[in-house]
Amino acid sequence: MLVKEVIAIIEEFAPPAYAEDFDNVGLLVGNNNAKVTGALITLDSLESVVDEAIDKNCNLIISFHPIIFSGIKKLTGKDYVQKTIIKAIKNDIAIYAIHTALDNQYKGVNDMICEKIGLKNRQILIPRKNSIKKLTTFVPNQQAAEVRNALFDAGGGSIGNYDHCSFNVKGEGSFKPNEQANPVIGSRGNLHLEEETQIGVTYPAHLESTLITALFKSHPYEEVAYEINTIDNENQHLGMGMIGELENPESPTSFLKRIKNQFNCGCIRHSDFGDTQIKKVAVLGGSGSFAINDAKGAGADIYLTADLKYHDFYKGDKTFILADIGHYESEQFTKDLLHSYLTKKISNFALILAETNTNPIKYI
To answer: Where are the transmembrane segments (predicted)?
Structure first.
C-alpha cells in the first residue's frame, strides 16, 4: 500500500474536518506516494521514535500529536522538533498526525477513557456546532429511489445509530425549458408539470462535495434543483469531551485511587472534596481547562482532564471535583485505539505499537 492509501483509511475514521481550526493534522513529513514497509503507531513523534521506526523497518509513523504545530522557518536541528523532522527526512520516513480529529470523533480519545473507567450512558460533553447540513432536492417520482440511494451511499441520511434516514414529500413541480435547453422531460418553450418527490437528507458538513457529486450523477434532470442549509442542531456524535455514569457510585477517594492505578498516574492533583459520592463523570483527554464550566453545567460529580493551572482548581467545590490525571496519562491508550482500528482494515504490512515512552514528565 501507498502512504496515501493508508491515510485514506485513517481519515475514514477521523476526517481532518473533525479537527479544531488551531490544529495541524495530516501528513506532516514524507511522500504521499511512497510504498509502506511498516507503520509505527505512537502518541508522540520524537527522535527516539524515529529511531524505533528505523529499527523495525517502518517508513510510516502514525502519531497522535503533531510534531509540527507552529510555523518552522529553519531546519537546523536546534530543538527536538527540528531534529525529529531532519532524521525522518534523512531516512525516508513519513509522519502522519491525527490529534483533534480523533479527539472529536465519538469513538475516539474520550470514548477510550470512558471505556477504561467503565462509564455507561456516554454523551459528548461539548457537541460540535455548525457541522450538520441538510440537502433538499426534487426528483421525478420514478427516479426518486435511485437518487435517494445514491445520497445514502455518499454518506447522507446517517443520524447516530441510524442510516438511510430521509423525509419525502410528493408534489408537483413546474418548469419551462428555453431554446438552449435539452430537457429529459418536457419540450422547449412549453410549460411542463411533473409529479415529483421532494427528498430531504442531513449529512456531515465535510461530506458536502461527495454528496453533491452523487446528486448530479444520479439525478435525471439537465438542471438539478436543490437547496443546502446549515442546521443549528448540535452534533451529538461529534465534539470535545464525554460524560457518562458509573454502574455503582464510588467515594471520591476510592474512585481516584482506582483511576491512579488504571492510568498509571505518577500523581493526581485534585480540588477539595467532601463525602459526596461519584456517579456522573466527565472526561477530556489532554488539556481540558476550557471545558470546566461545561462539565459542571452537565452535572458531573468529577471532571478528569489534564494541564489544570493553580487557579483552575478554585472552580471546584465539594459537589464538583476537578482532577488532573496528567496529559500523557489521559491519552496513553489512544495508540491502542488506532492500532485496533487499523489492524481490522490493513493486512498488507506490519502495524506496530511503539514501545518508546514519550511522556516528558517524570515523578519521584
So the answer is: none
